[in-house]
């Protein structure tokens, strides 16, 4: 295992770590005061782990937890040293105070980090550094069980610019989790609701970060639904799951759909998991699903989903090594033959995996294998092969087989995960419904 740079615990900010290493000689320091700017002092300490890990990797050192802990201790000691240099100066600007607070944070000096950042906010309440300082205030206020201070800091964050939904989510998560441990479920509802709002804002602004988006939405939903149940609001918990399942279609995300369906059935075991499909013919504010990206097309001209408007499109995410996927192939072939004249287009979506029948292969060999596999299994529909995980990420596909049905207007109308007989029966039923719908 190689050494990797670990994020400083709960540090929410992406901060520059490109400063060059500085020689640490006590005799030189005594002879000449260290007058480097505050930012340089911070960057030296903040970048210490990265520099050391690069050195370890160049030396091909095996992973050693003892060496890792020793290096982290050295970073903390460097942060303490540089904080001492900075705090000894007679006059500190707002930027100096900010970097001093960040050095205390690196040094794991909670009291000093908290008091320094609070001092900065009294002097300079606006701007990027002030908002970053509020992240630190929330973190240490929660750690020191001073939740009113954390709540006040996140409220102030909402009154100033710039705002980042990722930061807001994490601060609200810390507070909601603290209230959960205290069994103050009404306050959990308040802050988990704000987590959810921040998660949805993040989803709108970061369409390519599907894994992080789904993780934020899922954690928000689990916290909020638990708090709803604890406060006697089971119906709100059920409605939350249903709303997020609708969102999973419009995003689209098979992963979010699976997570929220599982949660719904745990809250309400007799719920109909197909209910949203039955009542949602047109998704509110739906956006066209992402275009599929293929390096190679087998028995199919390269095509865009936008070119298939007016058709019912079935996207099957699969792989030849996947046992459950192989179970579905005869049915999918039959459905292609049965419904193609009614407007159904079936597209197999896969990627290069670098192996075939248990042996490593290069891409030309794998493409030949896929062509042969398709021929041997008499798959009558086209298959697209991608060079990366781009399609899986765009559609939130983290397990296969996963299938999406798009109606004639290009909206995702049904998601099927797995090869269970009931799942496949529901999938065919929705093919029948959609091919009989008009635009």
If you had to describe this structure to a student in words, what would you say it looks like?
With 439 residues, the chain is of the alpha/beta class. 57% of the residues lie in helices and 8% in strands. The chain contains 18 helices and 8 strands. The strands form 2 sheets. A 6-stranded mixed beta sheet has the order 1-6-3-2-7-8, sandwiched between helices. A hairpin with a 2-residue loop joins strand 4 (355-356) and strand 5. Helix 11 packs antiparallel against helix 12 (234-250). It starts with 25 loop residues before the first helix and ends with a helix.
Integer-rounded radius of gyration: 27 Å
Which class of secondary structure composition applies to the elements?
alpha/beta
Q: Overall mean pLDDT score?
A: 91
User: In which order are the strands of the major sheet placed?
Assistant: 1-6-3-2-7-8
Distance between the termini: 55 Å
- How does the major sheet shape up? 6 strands, mixed
General shape: globular
Count the strands?
A: 8
Number of helices: 18
Beta-strand content bin:
5-15%
Low-pLDDT parts are: 1-29
Helix content: 55-70%
Order of helices and strands: HHHHHHHHHHHHHHEEHEEEHEHEEH
Compile the SSE list and pairings.
Blueprint: H1 26-31, H2 38-46, H3 48-58, H4 65-87, H5 94-106, H6 110-123, H7 128-143, H8 147-157, H9 165-181, H10 185-205, H11 210-230, H12 234-250, H13 254-267, H14 275-279, E1 296-298, E2 312-317, H15 323-339, E3 344-351, E4 355-356, E5 359-360, H16 363-376, E6 382-386, H17 390-394, E7 402-406, E8 412-417, H18 421-435
Parallel strand pairs: 2-3, 3-6
Antiparallel strand pairs: 1-6, 2-7, 4-5, 7-8
